[in-house]
Amino acid sequence: MEDGDGEKGAAKRTKLSAAAAAAGEDRLSALPDDLLVQVLLRIGGTTAAARTSVLSRRWRSLWCLLPELDFVPEADGGSIRAALAAYEPPSLRHLLVAAQDAAPHGMAEWLPVAARRLAGDLLLFNMAPKRDAKDDDDEEGKDGSPFLELPCFGSATKLSLDLGFLPLAVPVSGVFARLTDLSLDSVRFHGPCEFGDAASSRRFPSLKNLNIRNTQGLSNFIIHSDSLLQLDLRSVRGLKQLNVVAPALQVLSVFFCFADTQARSQPVADIAAPQLETLQWEDAFDPSSVEFGEMAKDFKNNRDCLRLLKRFRRDAISRLTLTLAFLPKDLRYFEYLMENMTMLPDIVSLNLNVLANAHAIGPSLFHVLRMCTSVRRLKLVTHISLDLEAQAVCSSDCVCDLPPNWKTEELLLKFLHEVEINNFRGTGHEIALVKRLFSWAVVLKDMTINFYHSVPESTAKELIERLLNVVPKTKRDEGEGAAAGEVLELPCFASAANLALDLGFIAVAMPRSGVFSRLTLLSLDNVRFHRPCDLGDAVSSPRSPFLKRLTIQNAHGLSNLSIHSESLLQIRLGGLKGLKQLNVVAPALGALYVISCFSDPLAMSQPVADISAPQLETLHWEDAFDPSSVRFGNMANVKCLGTHFYLAFGQEDFGHNGDCLRLLQRFQFDALDRLSLTLAYMSELNDLENEYLMEEMTMLPDIMFLGLTVLASGHAIGPSVFHVLRMSTSIRRLELATDIYSSNPQARAACSSSCTCDLPPNWKTEELKLAFLHEVEINNFRGTEHQIALVKQLFGWAAMLKDMTINFCHSITESMARKARNTHEFLHLPTNDIRFCMFQRTNAPH
């Protein structure tokens, strides 16, 4: 029956196509609505989709069937309102609006209509000119000034509003019945603000995640919520009182809300959150006015901390946040308890908060670091009690600097390349610690020191001179507030052709005028841009008319980058810390690389990017990706694609995996020349409640060349490679690299015999035909049992394989390579088709 129906449908479609061809009609219009909607989703936004209405009557209302709407800055409030009114489905699932310095009345035209129609999420981003938030208190803050009244979104599930400091009034009535996520950024609350009442359970019964960042006008925030799980407050300027009653709250983050140098009164906070698991308090703290209620019973002593660390001692963790506390009194009558801490998990980034109370923290930090010598990034925050702010150090007979071995004992942190120290006051204890950090971290590339807010500028400059005596000059970054006024003004190089600047994180201001009339290549590395930064203006066509290649790496202070260039052929962006918005309009661009720019674990808002590059052929987007806020426009010419790494085993909500899958889905119907994909394994998989995540990857684009990098950590990669290859059976060439980033000469050859990495076992028995694969290259080969088994399977899968090149790892000697080649498995392979290559070290010329 199915075969008959299929033949009947095929015959009907053939007849329709033939008739259409004979009559010279448009075959595309004959497609069903669902396929045409997929076409509209790929042509560059709702405005462009609506323009297809002029094609024919068939297309007139198709755009109204789109499951989501998005509007570019050129769309005014009236056109957005009209589009929302014409939208046919009963409810709107997703709405994205990017406005350009919109006024309150412009947004008020369409927001009420959106509130009635929206049953999903709204992302609103108002791209306002850069200005100091303090400047908003003058003209716009006067009574009677226009403001935006937020309507009640009764059916919305998620609201993310970045308003560019527009005045906002919260609704006085109405229930946000389905809202689970609310994010407010760059908002100035209008009038007497009752936001805490609005966000409490009575009117937000389903709210789970609340983020408030860079706001003004919220002096008192009192919230009572039975549903709230996560609360994040950052730079809520002028906050004086915080009261939170949240029985289910698990995560509370408070950053720089009370730390106002102009405020005379101390902050008042009362937190009742008995289920709290994560507390990040990087703010003014005084236990006499900041109370944490019943939370004390959950963190009642060191044993709780040690038990938790012991539970995860064998895990590989991206970031560990640890808080150490010192009593604000004589320590001679107390025991040194750090030695009770005997293990830490395998961590990449360590966030260490220390309530030092004027004591020396060197011995404790040394004890922690020698248990995590593989750490890559260290963030150290010293919290200072207000009543001890004037006290620089403890008494001379204090025992806090004991045991003294931290000053003499060797400690090798050979992977630590980034250190950030906050609330630095320049005490003798702190300077001694900085000196030791540089002796321990032999490959340190970046140290940022942010001074405590009460340190005068003159004192900061004196401390910088002292630090220069112990800190290598090429490895310093004096922090954003360290030396105000010491900024390098970059001149306009009118006749230069190439500029490559590695500035060691000194502050740089781009020239506001002048034309780089001959510049074709610009490379900026280790730069701290002085705000406001006009880099986008400087590299766009009016001022850099012949610029072809732009590279920006390891930069701070570049939150918004907007480039309009007719000449650019290649853009490389890597490690741009704090980047929030990226806009690129480059008709000739052929290659775009964006790597670790938006992937800030502390950032709560989504990245916003809009890329218009119709000639783009190479796209490496190894970063956060969500198509609701990152739009690529027309990219029909992309031939080479690179993605974020994908974790083979772990928790199913791992963020990088979602980024990778969404990007692959964006190009699932494309034919690519090359796909670069990276798979990663944790070092330990035993005793973990981690799932096999490869099965969540269900499609790949049509590709000819697959570049597969696997960070294996000694595990079997056969199941994951098999899973990837059976989705790309038409590949012609495979390049496989394993553990290319491993610099540890004692890296283990294989995991334990009880490890589950070799599951599921179907990769060894299930048939796989790679009928077109004729060339394979394997790099960093160690000759492990896992790797040899994979080579054997590759010969079974690829019947037409003509050429296999195996490049041994640099640590493999000739004798070790010979032993691997003579194993039983290799002797039974067609070794005439295998070319073995030893690692070649380049000798310096005599």
From TrEMBL:
This is F-box domain-containing protein. It comes from the Eukaryota. Signal peptide: none annotated. Residues 28-66 form the F-box domain. Keywords: Membrane, Transmembrane, Transmembrane helix. Residues 494-619 form the F-box/LRR-repeat protein 15/At3g58940/PEG3-like LRR domain. It comes from Oryza barthii. InterPro entries: F-box-like_dom_sf, F-box_dom, FBL15-like, LRR_FXL15/At3g58940/PEG3-like. The chain crosses the membrane at residues 703-725.
